[in-house]
Design brief:
Helix content is 40%, strand content 20%. By secondary structure, it is an alpha/beta fold. Bound molecules: zinc ion. Residues 64, 111, 210, 247-248 line the site of zinc ion.
Length: 320
């Protein structure tokens, strides 16, 4: 047998030991390295800014932004995380800044990491709120989302069951007061049907949900609607919030949201959408608009831009 060298031998021994012990550890979810942290946006209002890359065990599927608002008697949490396991990590981040219990959870959307933590908070007494169309989409995608998340986070999905809002609100626009805190809730229907954004007028803060991405390129899914996104972006601009907590990326302002999200929706519609309506060949169109200078600096550009164009082309071809 070839000499492995002592350090390599130790590594091999470690691997064998891990294999032997593996069985007894399976009940416990894999530990994460990402620890969500609350940052203050205004007095009593916080954002949790997730990493920009893909879902993984290392980030527990929390590759998105969350937020919370302190009320006199509790905490309103905006979006609940990707699983039971991930929800507990969000709860820890909240507990670091306040002892108040999370009494209300508001879902801005129906993508996995926006709502699959609902069950965790509901079991601990929180009341889940969402707009009716959001819940309809959650119901449609729940099983598929849980299955697909298992491929990214594995056993961290253990114990995760879809739990839907007990309190549903009318779309496209609702005002509500929770424990003295006034909020406006507006439909966006951009990333997923039924998606929404939540505005806190008192501090001029908007939780945009997946309407706005900064620092990374937004992703257009087969179920996304860029025409709705443009309308929603106009509604966002009209509110002229001082602070935006986007769906992904740093806490920001309207200017960055405009140049990294609003302008990209326009770019896709004006170029790719128009080409599809004009019945231009698809491959030629995708090649022609492959390198838009304004957006190439954004993270995930290489991975997403062509697929985004592809989906917009197909959408405009089918619905000219
Ligand atoms: Zn998202």
């Amino acid at each position: 047998m070839k000499d492995l060298g002592f350090p390599r031998f130790l590594g091999l021994l470690g691997a064998i030991l891990l294999l032997a012990l593996g069985g007894s550890f399976q009940a416990k979810a894999t530990p994460t390295t990402y620890q969500p942290e609350a940052i203050v946006v205004a007095t009593g209002i916080y954002a949790i800014i997730g990493p920009l890359d893909q879902r993984s065990r290392a980030n527990a599927g929390l590759n998105a932004n969350y937020g919370f608002i302190e009320t006199p008697s509790g905490v309103i949490l905006i979006d609940s995380g990707a699983s039971h396991f991930a929800a507990a990590l969000i709860e820890q981040a909240v507990k670091k800044v306040t002892d108040k219990p999370i009494k209300w959870v508001l879902n801005t959307g129906s993508q996995d990491h926006r709502w699959l933590g609902n069950g965790y908070f509901n079991e601990r007494g929180a009341e889940i709120h969402a707009m009716t169309p959001t819940v309809n989409t959650q119901r449609e995608y729940a099983a598929q989302q849980i299955e697909s998340l298992k491929r990214f986070v594995g056993d961290q999905m253990t114990g995760t069951k879809p739990v839907f809002a007990q309190t549903m609100h009318n779309a496209p626009l609702t005002s509500l007061v929770i424990d003295g805190v006034s909020l406006e809730w507006l439909s966006t229907n951009a990333h997923y049907p039924g998606d929404s954004m939540i505005y806190w007028p008192q501090g001029s803060v908007m939780f945009t949900g997946d309407l706005v991405y900064v620092d990374r390129l937004l992703s257009i899914l087969p179920q996304s609607n860029v025409r709705q996104a443009v309308l929603a972006f106009e509604a966002l601009t009209k509110k002229s919030p001082a602070v935006l907590i986007p769906g992904h990326g740093r806490v920001t302002d309207l200017a960055q949201a405009q140049s990294e999200t609003g302008d990209y929706y326009q770019f896709l519609i004006e170029n790719v959408g128009t080409a599809a309506q004009d019945m231009s060949p698809m491959t030629e169109t995708l090649d022609k608009f492959a390198t838009p200078k304004a957006f190439m600096h954004l993270q995930n550009f290489e991975a997403l831009h062509r697929a985004n164009m592809n989906r917009v082309f197909l959408d405009f071809e089918a619905n000219p």
